[in-house]
Amino acid sequence: MKKSLHIFCFLVLSTLAIHAQKTPTVKDTIITPEGWTTVGKINLLVNQSAFSNWQPGGDNNLAANLSVNYDFNYDKGPWSWDNKILASYGLNINEDDGRRKTDDRLELNSVVGRAMKKKYWNFSFYMNFKTQFTDGYDYNDDFMGDNELYPTSGFFKPAYWSFGPGFLWKKSNNLNVNIAPLSSRFTFITDEIFTINDDDENNVFYESSNDVETFGVPPGKNLLYEFGLNIRAYYKLDIMKNISMENTLSLYSDYLHKPLNTDIDYTLNVVMKINDVFSTNFTFQTVYDDDAFKGFQIREVFGLGINVNF
Fold it and tell me: Which distant-in-sequence residues (6+ apart) come within 8 Å of 214 by Cβ?
């Protein structure tokens, strides 16, 4: 598993490096105006299915996902300050299962940079914070309706806060990599949450965060501290007219505990523009963090989007 993770990281970073060697385009070399620059988008994805006397069968279903992607950046002389807010929330409602959450994310990224004499390179200091808005649950096969008594996550359950000095390679607002070799990361759990396990007889039972390690936080504790290497890369490009692709990759290696076991968070957003209001949107996210789950976590959202740009 570790070898596969490092191969994955190498391939992604190699792709960024290859792109960096290309001849700069007009888009890459535009001089950023001094002062504040803001740009953002609100997107609503909707999926719906309805059946009446439909013999092949089917469940009436309604799903909606609301997301906000907002950048506010500052440039003056050798200094730059890039900030990004990401927020999303999704629900799925059907006749059999009722209302269930499909997406929940709140994240803030901030990087302060000061230009070095070497082209594209900056001294930097980054900060990242992420959590979610509401309680989450594990809707396993044996779910019997009492699941809401046992939240497996929630607001500040957990929350991650990381920061540290480093070096920012910034070719443009659409292509940059921040490397922070001395990065601190805190994992918070502010209230009791649960993990779900099966015994030898396949009976589901719940274990409290007061009794077991949860998201890496020791039993009965509310805080985990880590110190290590953080790498964050961002790459956005236009595949063809009206189709854009946005890639975000975060890597973290904890020097204090299993330094070769790298945490990975990769998100791909593809927007296929129909007109100024409507678009088809595809989001794919995969996370590897064995403190949370022993394997890759995967999330995928696809649907017709209603966009508000500002």
Answer: 158, 189, 193, 195
pLDDT of residue 137: 82
What per-residue confidence (pLDDT) applies to 152?
83
Strand partners, 303: 281
Question: Residue 16 contacts by C-beta under 8 Å, 6 or more apart in sequence?
Answer: 175, 177, 233, 235
**Does an H or E element contain 2, and which?**
helix 2-20
In the block, tokens 């296929």 appear at: 272
Distance spanning both ends of the chain, measured CA to CA: 42
Name the pairing type of β-strands 263-273 and 98-115. unpaired
User: Half-sphere exposure of residue 100, counting CA atoms within 13 Å on the CB side?
Assistant: 14
Domains of the chain, earliest start first: 2-309 (2.40.230)
User: How far apart are the C-alpha atoms of 128 and 202, rounded to whole Å?
Assistant: 39
Check whether 59 has a pLDDT greater than 70.
yes
Tens of pLDDT along 195-251?
A: 766 655 556 566 777 778 888 888 888 999 999 999 999 999 999 999 999 999 999
Distance, CA of 119 to CA of 56 (rounded, Å)? 62
Q: Say which residue, 116 or 61, is predicted with more confidence.
A: 116
CB contact at 8 A, 281 and 271: yes
CB 287 within 8 A of CB 8: no
Closest CA to 125 of 87, 166, 158, 94: 166
Average pLDDT, stretch 170-185?
93
Q: Is 170 exposed, middle or buried (0-12, 13-18, 19+ CB in 10 A)?
A: buried
Other CB atoms within 10 A of residue 238 CB: 11
